[in-house]
Amino acid sequence: MSMTVVGMIAGMALGFAGYFGGFGAFLLVAALGAVGFVVGRLAEGDLEPGDLFRTRGDRRDRRR
Questions:
Q1: CA angle (10 as vertex; 55, 34 as ends), nearest 5
Q2: Which of 3, 7, 14, 50 has the highest CB neighbour number within 10 Å of its CB?
Q3: Is the full-model pTM beyond 0.70?
Q4: What is the Cα–Cα distance from 10 to 43, expressed in whole angstroms?
């Protein structure tokens, strides 16, 4: 599935949540979507857990 389709589905989900559930539901869906995105990146190995907690000056380029 392309990123365009994923973005469209996410936008539609946020739109439905905002329309039917109000602003609180919109924020809940957006927050859970962000959590799902991070968990998905962790599961695929694109993101390391330590990357979320290091300070900006402490990060090293691991690809060298």
A1: 20
A2: 14
A3: no
A4: 19
